[in-house]
Hints:
The complex is a heterodimer.
Chain A: H1 11-21, E1 43-49, H2 56-65, E2 69-75, H3 79-92, E3 99-103, H4 104-112, H5 134-139, E4 150-155, E5 159-163, H6 164-169, H7 176-182, H8 186-199, E6 205-207, H9 214-221, H10 239-253, H11 265-272, E7 276-281, H12 283-294, E8 302-305, E9 316-320, H13 328-338, H14 341-351, E10 354-355, H15 358-362, H16 364-367, H17 379-386, H18 399-415, H19 421-436
Parallel strand pairs in A: 1-2, 1-3, 6-7
Antiparallel strand pairs in A: 3-9, 4-9, 4-10, 5-7, 5-8
Helix pairs in contact in A: 2-14, 9-10, 18-19
Chain B: H1 4-7, H2 21-64, E1 67-70, E2 75-78, H3 82-88, H4 91-122, H5 129-135, H6 138-141, H7 144-154, H8 161-168, H9 180-207, H10 212-220, H11 225-236, H12 238-253, H13 257-262, H14 278-287, H15 293-321
Antiparallel strand pairs in B: 1-2
Protein name (chain A): Extracellular solute-binding protein
InterPro entries (chain A): Bact_solute-bd_prot1 (IPR050490), SBP (IPR006059)
Keywords (chain A): Signal
Amino acid sequence: MSVIRRRLRTVAVAALAAGVALGSTACSKSNDNDGSTGEGGEVKLVLQTFQNFGYDQALKDFEAANPKIKVEHQKMGELRDFQPKLVQWLAAGSGAGDVVGLEEGVLLQYVQNHDKFANLLDLGASELKTTFPEWKWNNALTPDGKKLIGLGTDVGGLAMCYRKDLFKAAGLPTDREEVSKRITTWPDYIALGKEFKASGKAKAAWLDSATSLMQPYIMQNSETFFFDKDNKFIGDTNPVIKQTWDMGLQMAADGLTAKAQRWSGDWDAAFKNNAFATLPCPAWMTEGVIKPRSGPANAGKWDIAKIPGGGGNWGGSYLAVPQQTKHPKEAYLLAKYLTSKAGHLAAFKEAGAMPSDIEGIEDPAFKDQKSEYFSGAPTGLIFGESVKNMKPVFLGAKHQQVWETILEPQMQAAERGQLSSAAAWKKAMDEAKKATS
Amino acid sequence: MSSAVGAAPPRHAASPSPSDPVHRRRSYRLGRWDIKYSPYLYVAPFFVLFGIFGLFPVLYTVWVSLFEYDLLSDSKVFVGLENYRVVLDDAQFWNAAYNTIGMFVVSTVPQLLVALMIANLLNRQMRARTVLRMGIVIPNITSVAAVGIIFALIFADRYGLVNWVLGTVGIDPIAWRDNRYASWFAVATMVDWRWTGYNALIYLGAMQAIPKDLYESASLDGASTWRQFWKITVPLIRPTIIFTIIISTIGGLQLFTEPLMYGYGLIRGGASNEFQTLAMYIYERTFTGNFEYGTGAAMSWLLFLMIIVFALINFALVRRSVKGEQK
């Protein structure tokens, strides 16, 4: 659902790997939706999502309200497993669901090649424009503004998760208000990290990895990431990227990071071993990533403060209707319902996915939400505030590829000392240019 | 087709109806057809299925490899052999080939040698023989993905079992993923864990077909067990050894899941592609990033050719080095 959450490895990778190892090509289990207008004019829709969209309850409600529509929800594992399949199904002209989940990191790829998707504006989506933040809406719109391929599901929001017990051991404030005040800017945050380390009382690093800084800092300080609005690669000239790279690796050099490779088994173990004290966290990361990895033994030891540098966003998804569907009208109804206030709030309740629906964010069901695991932190309030004044960041069609397969691994190599910072940077930029030319 | 099948009496000819010449002629014709065509019918299911699921994809891959085929936008431009030129010019392709062959050698050579030893031990009289013989194939029936996850944790850089053990005896932790050869070793361990027992079982089957009196007379002549093994056992199971080597070559050069899982599911196989195999690189080019279907198809074909060449080389090498006495 978000840039990162989709990359939880293990099970989904297992499925992928086993599938490929067996030599199976695109599986055809989703073909049973072909024009199946069952008994009594009943329409069967297939919804394909990745990760956990939290739609179990929402779908029940939808079916209850629309007795003539049955929905089969196919959870396709991680986005990295789903994405290649979806591309094949779209190219083959069959196999894709009637409604499919798209993540913002890959959305623009589809906006560029939008002929495989139905135009939601033709299906009546114009009426929904005002229910979404402008940027969320515009992201799924073709440059000429005439075709909309997706409706927004969640947004990331941003906060700083921290370990109260480790803060206490190092003699730092533990109250979330006070911590927020001590880390209003990123230099403050680094300075507090140095204080944490200097105390010598906590046997933990300040941050999990130098790469954790990249997404939040760049999202806050630049309107573009690796690509300009013409989808030209600017990763090498966008000053903010190099700046964050240097800042992160300097923290690593100062011994403030645990040098854990994110999304690896070691990283998972680092949570359990209390190896670091802070972690910038979008909404979906709190209940979905930190809680299961830290385990029940660490319940109540985490808390959530405001992110340094003001608000920001990290991740978020869309629902789209492929052109190949036999039931575009019903598919649109489903997408519309799931991205309405009711659908958003149900997903928030189930999976912690923060609503992108304007009314949803203001609803008490979201606003007053507190997280028990995170010491009762008012998550609704903190994350809601973080996206209030956010500026949209243009990601580009190949954002996810450049980040996940090129920049992050090279930065990690530099952090571990396998390559010098300069060599890793050059390698990353060369590879990115090659991949995006 | 003057095979043994033709020598058997046709079934229909046996049905007696001498009084009716027309009937007799017909049944004679049916019998002829039976002899002539039914063998083809019997083997047809395999060839039909192979044609659909084996031959067609292979030929279609050739076709696709001649196009610049972007799966995402579905655009297809004929470029001839350009894809092959691009691939042969690509340093990452050769890096992947180097890794694949390296891991193949590091895993297969010890694997087959150990399998041979194990089979030899299991070929003796001992207690609980069947249990032990069955036991060695158990690793083979475990899921490769599960094996990958577990071994990735065992060889984890920071909290891994191996580095912890090394630490207790005062050895610095090994960078299992940043060091190319360390990563090869770890992946080879995974492969061997799964396949050694399987090969041992095949060897064992072949060894049981060797007549016992050969060993008896060798013992009488004063040959040591070790000598018997190399002079009798190994030469006599040579066809089996060649079989396992060819199968291992095919499997080893297509290595995919183990290194993928080892790198926590990242298709690039290490920050500098230390353990990215050809199969992984094909997947990376075809199904991620630019969705270069044509390039992936070209690489698949090169891998196919590489496997054939390697299988032939191994075949020739083994045939020469393990010469049987039965000339």
